[in-house]
Amino acid sequence: MVKPRGPEEVVEAVRAAEAEAACLHPWGRGSGVLGASLPPPDCAILDLSGINEVRVDADAQLVEAGAGATLESIDLEASKHGLILPLRPQSIKLASIGGATQTLASGWLQPGYGNIEDAILYVDLVYGGGRMYRIGSPRSPRGVEAPLHPAAVLGAEGALGAVIKVGVKLRRSPGGVAAGAYKFDSIEAALSVARELIQWSPPALLRVFDEREASVMLGVDSAVLVYQYYAIDAQAAESLADAAGRLASTLGGRRASDSLVERFLRERGRYSEHLEALASAGLVVDTIDLAATWNVLPRLWKEALKTLDGTSGVVAAMAHAGHFYPGGGALYIIVVAESLGPLASAWRGVMEKATSLGAAITHHHGVGRMKVRWAALASKDSLEALCRLAEALDPKGVFRGSPLRRYCGGLNCLSEHQ
Questions:
Q1: Does the pLDDT at position 418 exceed 60?
Q2: CA end-to-end span of the chain, whole Å?
């Protein structure tokens, strides 16, 4: 393990590795779930968790954070200035901002505030030869004043180099918050409401639960849609929430208690407890993120769960959707299995089903070892372009430990997982 204390030591480590034909694999906080952060045996870990300084410019609504800073630490610092970090995944206490850039992370405020690519202003990247470049700009509210946008290096999972600093846009803390919850007879009906809401004035939070997850998470025996609006004041928030409620009622929704929103926010913070309870029962649990256009999403939801229901050794499967766009949304599946064997079968079944339906095999968890083979089948041209860029930036292969970079070398990372 190499643990630099600042950007200069990252540069020094990369130059030393290149001189010795060694391999370094960037590591943030290790919260990823698809194996992107795991180095192969011939690579040393480049632990960036010690580069974690957080500096807020309240007037510019900008934070500059070291790659190892947790998202929670950034949000806490921003809150001192009446600001919030718009990127708020369930793993906010664990995830680093550097890792978030490398896995195309998102969070539960995506409907209103977007994903990591919508929050980034610039990225400081160290790549082959120990060269360090700032891609993007703190001077532009768009993050770009030259041809290359910082989004060009997001999602590379360490294949292009080590992200050491990130500039992120902050948002004002809401002056008013209003919520609503509705029950539906079908997932299709709930999704029809989500589709309309996302077209106009999207809520900050928008989530659809199927009846399985609603039963476990909310104690409700039907599909449920919950939403929460952030606005300049309470009156504006209530007005938006009321309009959303009228739409939900028109499209078949039945008003439920607003307390379901608070229950969801409370329960989602207890995921570690739920994992420990399942582990103590001898079970394993995993999550699979997919995405699809509106014409495919409802069918993907049903077919993926049908596949899991028919997989021997799968104890339970449930799903929700919490990331939405004018053109579609993301599906988040939770799988509980008796052991790793059935879990591997579940993964293969869901990936094959998603591919056959024309859905995207990943949304906000990245690719990693778990999905690199499927990503190669679905997005071969994009991966090959990444390989060419990696060869240009890092010809000596210092960062060859990334699963994406190992794909460039023709290695089947799925076999490593199995």
A1: no
A2: 26
Q: Which two tokens mark 386? A: 């990444």
Domain 279-365 has CATH 3.40.1090.10: no
Q: State what percent of residues in the chain have pLDDT above 90.
A: 83
Please tell me if the domain spanning 7-172 has the same topology as the one spanning 176-268. Answer: no
Is domain 176-268 in CATH 3.30.1020.10, yes or no? no
Residues 6+ apart with CB under 8 A from 186: 223
List alpha helices for 281-362, DSSP H.
297-309, 340-357
Report the pLDDT averaged over residues 102-112: 96
Strand 24-27 to 44-47 pairing: parallel
Name every residue whose Cβ is closer than 8 Å to that of residue 264 and which is 6 or more positions away in sequence. 207, 217, 218, 226
Beta strand 176-184 pairing with 223-231: antiparallel
Residue 386 has pLDDT above 80, yes or no: yes
Q: 29: number of CA atoms within 13 Å, CB side?
A: 22
Q: Which of 3.30.465.10, 3.90.1720.10, 3.10.310.10, 1.10.340.30 is the CATH number of 7-172?
A: 3.30.465.10
Whole-prediction pTM value? 0.93
pLDDT tens for each residue of 307-352: 999 999 999 999 999 999 999 999 999 999 999 999 999 999 999 9
Domain spans of the chain?
7-172, 176-268, 279-365
